[in-house]
# Entry
Amino acid sequence: MPRPKSLFQCQSCGYSSLKWLGKCPDCNAWNSFTEEQHVSKLKGQKTARPVALSEISASTGGRHSTGIGELDRTLGGGVVKGSVVLIGGDPGIGKSTIILQSVRGLAKLGKVLYVSGEESPEQVKMRAERLQITSGEIILLPETSLEGIISVAREINPQVIVIDSIQTIFSLEISSAPGSVGQIRECATKLMFLAKKRGIPLFIIGHVTKEGAIAGPKVLEHVVDTVLYFEGDKGNPFRILRAVKNRFGPTNEIGVFEMMESGLKEVDNPSQLFLSERPTNVPGSVVTVSLEGTRPLLVEIQALVSPSSLGVPRRTALGVDYNRVNLLVAVLDKRIGMRLSGMDIYVNVVGGLSIGEPAIDMGIAGAIASSFKNQAIDTGIFTFGEVGLSGELRAVGQAGTRIGEAVKLGFKKGIVPANNLNKFEEKDIEITGVKNVEEAVEMLLF
Ligand SMILES: Nc1ncnc2c1ncn2[C@@H]1O[C@H](COP(=O)(O)OP(=O)(O)O)[C@@H](O)[C@H]1O
Ligand SMILES: [Mg+2]
# Structure
């Protein structure tokens, strides 16, 4: 049977088709198809031998510290040998910086091959000087051809490989341009085989497209073991590194950093940081506790409710799910009788954090209620709980951990779901269990 010689691939999701298409049927992107050469991967491949599970010995001691506690935490307790880690984020957010800083710890493993396809060795050197990194174990390779990188890696036998960035690397075996789906997949896969075979960690830096996907897209996320993603906005020095996928640790684990002249500095007490600029006696501000991975984080949620001058009122959600905000507005309207339908509503999580957990529902609802009634909530109170459609407050996981964090920061009173009451033991705090949003709002705005 004759094989197709070329395929058309969507550059935003990797969908392939034999014909050129104007619109991708998978991700609905327009004009995203380009021609890529089809390479048969099966030639000369060895088949694996089946092994009994009991015969396999897995060593647990294979983790290595990067020398940066917050990075180790997001990786699930250090980097695993033979693992492939993708670090994604907007340009200028600090991807090259964190890798260069972690090289200080990684150099203890041996030689670190730093492949720089974007910057000249002089530029990397300038950054290293600014970050005060002087290790002689770092070997810079200004190379963009995959074959060149692999041959250098074979020659010098590094113990860690860093690719900065995957979008600049291309394989001579594929005719499409660097940065295209085919190139990125081919290069990432070949590099992954190299890392697995040698049992060394491989860090891949990847840029993010306007739409927020790691360019050369989902295909790359499937190839790697761990995906770390930098969040944070340019105007704000805080950077959050989040594990979006991790085969060796919990997902959603975060590390918090502050960007300084001398590089990324770890933030030891993020809860304190997120609450540091909290206004007192201002309506529309509530403290809630979110669990990011294994770490509880106290965050301030702000809401502003004001009568709308538009036919369709404006709703804005920053850092929380837009649909979730709409749902909570509907619950407050229907169950407590707050007339929110003609109101513009803005909700924001302070500090540039994004939270997807339903446990912060009560925080959002409380902030909206506080702003609507123009009544400030006491600064010593926090609340959490998932809100159901009938207005009930549902229990959330790890209530004890959350309350413990609030106690540490000196909170005096907590309004939590009634079903969470028996799950913790804390002394220095007054905890009230409530059954529904109405009771919770009453307690917050007593
Ligand atoms: N003196 C400095 N020179 C250059 N960048 C600096 C300096 N001080 C702090 N920075 C920060 O470093 C960032 C660049 O980080 P970098 O790791 O190169 O980003 P990425 O690799 O993600 O594109 C800049 O956005 C800036 O915030
Ligand atoms: Mg960079």
Notes: The pocket of magnesium ion (ligand 2) is lined by residues 95-96, 118, 164 (CB under 6 Å). The radius of gyration is 25 Å.
